[in-house]
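Milestone 3.1: sequence recovery, worked example.
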């Protein structure tokens, strides 16, 4: 079990460290647009939408990495009142009641949405550029799956600590 948890941690670390480079792409696209628009009076159609798509992919693929570092919203006021074991129990209960059902539903819906997007060759309708949406919809589904996997790893850690009082 520890090996599986370490693999999930490493996977989310690698994905997190890789997708941070999308921020460079967003900066370069924005810079290109600003220079083209204000210095050459030649605005682009694609730059702003590229930044929006890259930003969505960047956020979605970083959810597991953020969860590993406990960066998502939490009810710290209540958790700080509990002992470390109580915090682990609270995390286990909230994972069962909220995290896993919500992520399971989101993965299911986004997976259907992703497949439909690829099958119908969906293009972004609000853009004149009309980029294909399959890759970004796939990133959303993969990001949710990575979040789910990291949630499962944290769940096992918390459950083990709640039962045995020792960390994995």
């Amino acid at each position: 079990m520890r090996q599986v948890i370490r693999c999930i941690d490493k996977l989310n670390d690698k994905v997190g460290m890789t997708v941070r480079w999308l921020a460079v792409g967003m900066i370069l696209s924005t810079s290109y647009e600003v220079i083209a628009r204000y210095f050459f009076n030649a605005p682009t159609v694609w730059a702003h939408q590229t930044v929006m798509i890259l930003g969505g992919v960047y956020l979605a693929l970083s959810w597991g990495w953020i969860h590993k570092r406990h960066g998502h919203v939490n009810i710290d006021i209540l958790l700080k009142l509990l002992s470390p074991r109580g915090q682990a129990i609270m995390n286990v209960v909230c994972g069962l009641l909220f995290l896993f059902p919500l992520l399971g539903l989101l993965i299911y819906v986004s997976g259907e949405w992703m497949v439909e997007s690829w099958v119908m060759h969906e293009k972004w309708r609000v853009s004149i550029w009309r980029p294909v949406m399959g890759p970004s919809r796939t990133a959303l589904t993969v990001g949710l799956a990575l979040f789910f996997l990291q949630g499962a790893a944290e769940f096992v850690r918390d459950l083990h600590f709640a039962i045995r009082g020792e960390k994995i």
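DSSP finds six helices and no strands in the chain. The mean pLDDT is 94.
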